[in-house]
Amino acid sequence: MKKPHFSLCVYCGSRPGADPAFAAAAQAVGQWIGGHGGQLVYGGGRNGLMGVVAQATLDAGGRVLGIIPRALVEREWANHNCTELLVVDTMHERKRLMAEHADAFVTLPGGIGTFEEFFEVWTWRQLGYHDKPVGLLNVNGYYDGLMAFLQASVAQQFMGDAQLDLIRVEAEVQRLLPDLVQAAGLAPETRLDAL
Ligand code: AMP
């Protein structure tokens, strides 16, 4: 397989969530990555939205790099269909490697693990540990409550607008993903079958 045009790190739920729109969005994200010659970097699990985005990427001809801590191999059902599956010793190593391999980050709906990963790459960005684009896919308003809370934090002067502006928030896969890849200074592959 040739070198991917870009690597997108996806954080998302190890559960599917209640709204079928979440799995549909995860499917669309995988299709977009695979359809544009990209690589998915993710947590290497088969459960929930994580499994959906990985399978959709593979089905669309994309490369999938899964990175999972040894202790979670059984709990999260390590995905042996990944193009490459790295089993690492610690959660810290997983997150460091995921971040290193990514050109940009996107967070889909998920639970506490997803939140933690999103906040980590966002805080790393504001501290200048990396300068990669950070996106939030707000499927069916799932993150409306979080955005309202973050606005309240700005209003209460615990952070500035500039910090909030570091994250790109969109409801549509087709808007957010091209924007993130372009902001990373990369160009998605244009394939006729992906249009
Ligand atoms: P969740 O959103 O809770 O379903 O978790 C999604 C992914 O986040 C899973 O692969 C978790 O292993 C991962 N994750 C990353 N950091 C953490 C953490 N500190 N606590 C729990 N899960 C985490």
Mean pLDDT: 95
Q: What is the CA–CA distance across the termini?
A: 21 Å
Cofactors, ions and other ligands in the entry: adenosine monophosphate
Q: Proportion of β residues?
A: 15-25%
Query: In the CATH hierarchy, what is the architecture at level 2?
Result: 3-Layer(aba) Sandwich
Q: Would you tell me which CATH topology applies?
A: Rossmann fold
Tally of helical segments: 7
Quaternary state reads: single chain
Briefly, what CATH class?
Alpha Beta
N to C succession of SSEs? EHEHEEHEHEHHEH
Identify the strand order in the major beta sheet.
Answer: 4-3-2-1-5-6-7
Overview of the molecule:
With 195 residues, the chain is of the alpha/beta class. It has a single domain, classed as Rossmann fold, CATH 3.40.50. Helices cover 42% and strands 18% of the residues. It has a 7-stranded parallel β-sheet, with helices on both faces. Helix 1 runs parallel beside helix 2. The chain is globular. It starts with 5 loop residues before the first strand and ends in a 12-residue tail after the last helix. The mean pLDDT is 95. The structure holds adenosine monophosphate. The site of adenosine monophosphate has 15 residues, from helix 4. Adenosine monophosphate (AMP) binds next to helix 4.
